[in-house]
Amino acid sequence: xxxxxxxxxxxxxxxxxxxxxDTARLDSxxxxxxxxxxxxxEDYLYAVNELRSILLQYPGSAVNxxxxxxxxxxxxxxxxxxxxxxxxxxxxxxxxxSPFVPEAQxxxxxxxxxxxxxxxxxxxxxxxxxxxxxxxxxFFPANPRVEECERKIEELNxxxxxxxxxxxxxxxxxxxxxxxxxxxxxVVDTYHDTKFAPISLFRKIxxxxxxxxxxxxxxxxxxxxxxxxxxQNASKxxxxxxELTAEG
Length: 248
Prior knowledge:
Layout: H1 2-18, H2 28-40, H3 44-57, H4 64-77, H5 81-94, H6 101-115, H7 124-139, H8 146-173, H9 177-190, H10 196-210, H11 214-227, H12 234-247
Helix pairs in contact: 2-3, 2-4, 3-4, 4-5, 5-6, 6-7, 7-8, 8-9, 8-10, 9-10, 10-11, 11-12
């Protein structure tokens, strides 16, 4: 029991230390410096409280954009990514001249990236992450983070393509061939530079052969050989083209 009360006392002391500064005596810069020290100490919950207080007490002050950015970062560090995304977007919208805007745009995209789930789940956050990374590239093409954004867009597009391909594959196995072909075509049209595009087109070609869609299959075979000549299925597609042309 004694150790329990000692533990409670230690918690109270630590909590008291974290909030011992009388911020009412500070100006906006002093208040921000204190809030930033909490952030640097990884005391993100208290940092959130102080940064929100600054934004309420000193609207339009010189530290307003600093407070807004680190409020977003504090939420991000706490893995409260939706709250972080909201604060980053608020900075971009309300203080467009701030030097924090490029980093806020990147962190907005990164927040959605962290929320992006594995491919079988809903990919709404994945789509948002792609949109925001692309916005970063469009607005800040000379920024050193562009290459990282491009890499993450590629990764996220692969995830979305996998989801659409697997939907097509399931419909194909259920013998809902028209639905399967629609999903496969969507992958080819939308995610043409992912690894799921050639396999989607290949499976669509096989369905078209099965359904005697001669015009469509020859057109898709030509497209496959034009777009994916190095793919592992290219030789099979070439053989199919030879056979169908001979039959014709």
